[in-house]
């Protein structure tokens, strides 16, 4: 998922916090409305159905699948079809596909809609070598003409909004040209991550590039990059004029980020950070959704990274790391969660005894 926010050099966006920002629900057409205009980003091996549902319940206005191969969908490959896996309660849900040939992407978009997609999104941002070496993902940014052809083909093929997620460029910034090609091809909206492909996840997202794209096109623009709380969301909105924000790494182990941003956009008080018990309750909900959808075996393997993200940087994380290899059942998962909770509560009680005045001021 890239380097952690706290390790960015220089430190992440600083300065004064902008004033309140208002954004209405974002209407993408075809009956698709993002309310609030805050989106869960597609993330490989992360945004499967259980996590998408948790984020929707916490206030995300739209969720997205991990990127799915267009060729895999065309051939109804079990892996590709299973990655879509849309269920009731997720919508509006976006299926993100990747490919490079207009005719294949158009056909894959049709299949995605058959499988329940409310929106079909083209991945033009993945920077990983194994993806771009075959001409997919961010590699498309080098061919603006092809981008227009792709969006023309996809938009004509389906009766749902077609969108694209791009980066600022390949090595140098080409964002405006790419965005204009998307708009000319019929894209209903676009998401821009404010880093070039060569930047990977290093440094900070360039808000100026996102602002330039917003100025250049008439379709809605969704800002992406370094949004992890209501403050960074305000900065993204205020600095770029974007119509919505997309949250990626900031949602890992922190689905409450969506309720924070949603409350701020409504002009409400920012909710308190989740209590230990609320964190436990949400994580158990996440586990139950996993078990319901994928069964015990797959859940025991895939939930481990989520457990660590939920308790990242706390004594609970250390407890979990010692238990991960021994997780082979649903009971093991629940016992590990309880042990992590106990470790965190124990540290909080110790701090309270050591610094009673500090606790009184909280």
UniProtKB/TrEMBL annotation:
Keywords per UniProt: Flavoprotein, FMN, NADP, Nucleotide-binding, Oxidoreductase, RNA-binding, tRNA processing, tRNA-binding
Enzyme class: oxidoreductase
Signal sequence coordinates: none
Co-factor(s): FMN
GO molecular function, one term: flavin adenine dinucleotide binding
Pfam families: Dus
EC number from the UniProt entry: 1.3.1.-
PANTHER family per UniProt: TRNA-DIHYDROURIDINE(47) SYNTHASE [NAD(P)(+)]-LIKE (PTHR45846:SF1)
Protein name, UniProt field: tRNA-dihydrouridine synthase
